[in-house]
Design goal:
Rossmann fold; alpha+beta; 15 strands; Dna Ligase, domain 1; 12 helices; four-stranded antiparallel beta sheet; D-amino Acid Aminotransferase, Chain A, domain 1; 372 residues
Length: 372
C-alpha cells in the first residue's frame, strides 16, 4: 500500500483477519501506519515505488496523489495497480472528472472550465451572482474550494496553477441549493462484481465531515436506488477497482447531484467497520485482490459515526479512555495515532442501535470525551 496515513493504519486489522501480508510505503517516519511501514520513501519517485512494488503482488493507495507517470511505470512493469491510472486520473483532477461524468450523462452541478477572471465573472453573473470555485487538483476537506461573488476573490489561484505547470484553468460550479449531503460507497473488483453499502447522510462542519448517519434517514426506496445506480455507473464507467466513495447533494427540488469522488476507503464509510457485515477496509482488500465481495447490509437499524476533530488540548486520546469507555460501553473508539491539532481528524466513534435519537446522543457524547 502506498501512503502511510490513517487509512493504511485502519487497513491493518482487516489484512490480519484475511491473512494478507500488508506492506506500506510511507512518506515519512512516524506516520499513522508505522506499524506496517517496512519502507519509507518518496511516492513521487518512480525508482523508489518500483523497488517497493517488486516485493508485493498488488499495489493500492490510501490517497490519490501518486503521479500518473509513476502509476504508468508500475503498469508497464507488469504490477497490478488498483485502482489503475486510467481511473485515478478522474479523482486527481476535478475538471477531468466533471467532463467524464457529464459524458456519462450523470447528474452534476452546472459547471465550466475557466482560465481568466473575465470568464469566471461571466459564469458568476449567469448563476445568480454567486458560484463555487475549486482548484482542479489537491483540494480536500474544504481546501481549494471557495464560494465567491467576484473573480477577484480567487485571482491568485489562476497564477498559482499556471506556475505549478497547469494550464491555469479552474473549475467553477453553480452554488447548489441542497437540503443535505449524502454519500454512496461502492466496491468493484477487476472481474466486474460490484457491491454497494446503504446510502448515508454526512454532516459537514467547516468543510470537514463531522458525522455520518447510516442509513440516511428518509432514503429508503427511490432515493437509495438512484444513488446506488449512480455509484455503480461511475465505478463501471471510470473503470474503478477497490472502494469508491461518491459524495452527493440532495437538492431542495428532490434531485441528487454528484459532488466529489474518492477512489479509496473514505471517511463516510468508517461506520461500516462496526456497523456493516463487511467493513469498507476488508472489502477494499477483497476487491483489489479480486476476491468475492462480502455482504454489505447493516448489523443494526442505525449506525452513527462522529469524528474526533482536534482532540484534547493536553495529553492524548488514550489518556481519556478509562472515563470515556466506562461512560459509553456501546461506543466503538478508533484512534488514528495522530497528534492532536485544531481541526485535524484524529479518530472517530461509532455507535449502533435501534433508536436513532439514542444512537446519535451516545455517539456525540462519547466523542465529546476526547475533545476540549
Amino acid at each position: 500500500m502506498i501512503g502511510g496515513g490513517q487509512l493504511a493504519r485502519m487497513m491493518i486489522p482487516a489484512a490480519i483477519e484475511l491473512g494478507v501480508d500488508l506492506r506500506v510505503l510511507a512518506e515519512a517516519e512516524g506516520m499513522a501506519a508505522a506499524i506496517a511501514a517496512d519502507r519509507v520513501g518518496d511516492y513521487t519517485d518512480t525508482a523508489t515505488v518500483l523497488a517497493f512494488a517488486r516485493e508485493v503482488d498488488v499495489v493500492t493507495f490510501d490517497h490519490e496523489h501518486v503521479p500518473q507517470d509513476v502509476l504508468r511505470a508500475l503498469v508497464d512493469a507488469g504490477v497490478p495497480v488498483h485502482p489503475g491510472p486510467d481511473a485515478l486520473r478522474f479523482a486527481q483532477d476535478k475538471l477531468v472528472m466533471r467532463e467524464r461524468l457529464s459524458e456519462l450523462g450523470l447528474p452534476v452541478p452546472d459547471w465550466a472550465r475557466v482560465q481568466t477572471t473575465a470568464e469566471l465573472d461571466d459564469f458568476i453573473a449567469g448563476h445568480g451572482g454567486t458560484a463555487v470555485v475549486k482548484t482542479p487538483r489537491g483540494g480536500y476537506d474544504g481546501k481549494g474550494v471557495r464560494v465567491v461573488r467576484r473573480a477577484a476573490e480567487v485571482s491568485e489561484w489562476f497564477t498559482t496553477i499556471a506556475e505549478d505547470g497547469g494550464d491555469g484553468a479552474l473549475l467553477v460550479e453553480e452554488l447548489v441549493d441542497f437540503r443535505r449531503e449524502l454519500a454512496q460507497l461502492v466496491a468493484r473488483r477487476p472481474s466486474g462484481e460490484v457491491a454497494t453499502w446503504p446510502l448515508v447522510e454526512t454532516v459537514q462542519v467547516g468543510g470537514v465531515c463531522s458525522e455520518v448517519i447510516a442509513p440516511a434517514p428518509r432514503s429508503a426506496g427511490r432515493l437509495a436506488d438512484v444513488a446506488a445506480d449512480v455509484a455503480i455507473t461511475i465505478a463501471e464507467g471510470l473503470g474503478v477497482t477497490g472502494v469508491l466513495a461518491v459524495e452527493l447533494f440532495e437538492t431542495s427540488d428532490e434531485r441528487i447531484l454528484v459532488n466529489e469522488l474518492a477512489m479509496r476507503p473514505h471517511n463516510s464509510g468508517h461506520w461500516s467497520m462496526d456497523g456493516s457485515t463487511t467493513g469498507q477496509f476488508e472489502q477494499h482488500l477483497r476487491a483489489v485482490l479480486d476476491l468475492p465481495l462480502g455482504a454489505t447490509g447493516s448489523r443494526d437499524e442505525w449506525s452513527v459515526m462522529v469524528n474526533v476533530l482536534g482532540g484534547p488540548a493536553e495529553g492524548s486520546l488514550t489518556d481519556r479512555y478509562g472515563e470515556a469507555l466506562a461512560a459509553h460501553p456501546t461506543a466503538k473508539m478508533h484512534n488514528y495515532g495522530k497528534a492532536p491539532r485544531p481541526g485535524r481528524k484524529i479518530g472517530h466513534v461509532t455507535v449502533s442501535g435501534d433508536d436513532l435519537d439514542a444512537v446519535v446522543y451516545e455517539a456525540r457524547a462519547a466523542a465529546a470525551f476526547f475533545q476540549d
